[in-house]
Amino acid sequence: MTHSADPAGFDPDTFLVVPARTFEDLRVGEVFRAPSRTLTDAHAAAFQTVSADNHPVHYDVEWARKRGHSAPVVHGLQVLAFTAPGATLFPHLIGDVFISFLEVSCTFLAEVHSGDTLYPALTITGLEPDGDTGVVVTAATIHNQRGELVLSGQHKYLLRR
User: Fold this and answer.
1) Pairing mode of beta strands 117-130, 133-144
2) Alpha-carbon distance 99 to 140, whole Å?
3) Residue 14 has what pLDDT?
4) Could you give the CA distance from residue 108 to residue 119 in angstroms, rounded to a whole number?
5) How far apart, in whole angstroms, are the C-alpha atoms of residue 128 and residue 130?
6) Distance, CA of 140 to CA of 152 (rounded, Å)
7) Per-residue confidence band for 23, with pLDDT thresholds at 50, 70 and 90
């Protein structure tokens, strides 16, 4: 059986995960959650390879224990990476109005270890219009499986208005 495509009937620009919104459509308080993820030793090893961060606190069980850690500590930058907006629906919602990711900051509040499950979220805390553009400010948070806040931070994005 052959199927013929109708090039006139399909427009890839309309093939959206969610309908695109504008800066003006966004609201303070909106929450964008990323899927939860249980970290494994394989995740930590892969990040260690990519980052070239070879500090023994990240991979040497005995070194970590002798210094008061219950287990090797997952790289902080790896934990921060779980706040990537692309893991949420946010970049799909803003579609073509996105210009750039301006800023990221965070505080690491508790250690993360292999076996921990992380629950990342971005919450819009500010909408700052400025002429033809606007800055969206989000609170970035990650909780673990015990409900502990392990990371608190902020992202800023520049959008067209």
Assistant:
1) antiparallel
2) 20
3) 84
4) 14
5) 6
6) 6
7) very high
| CA dihedral (150, 88, 20, 31) positive or negative | negative
**Neighbour-count burial of 23, counting CB atoms closer than 10 A to its CB (0-12 exposed, 13-18 middle, 19+ buried):** buried
pLDDT > 70? residue 1: no
Q: Give 5's pLDDT tier (boundaries 50, 70, 90).
A: low
| 63 token code pair | 């070194």
Judged by DSSP in three states, 7 sits in: helix
The amino acid at 122: L
In the numeric block, the tokens 């673990």 are attached to 144
Is CATH 3.90.1150.10 what the domain over 22-160 is classified as, yes or no?
A: no
What is the Cα–Cα distance from 46 to 42, expressed in whole angstroms?
6
Within a 10 A sphere around the Cβ of 8, how many other Cβ atoms? 6
At residue 103, what are phi and psi to the nearest 5 degrees?
Answer: -160, 150
In the chain, where are the structural domains located? 22-160
Contact 104, 153 (CB under 8 A): yes
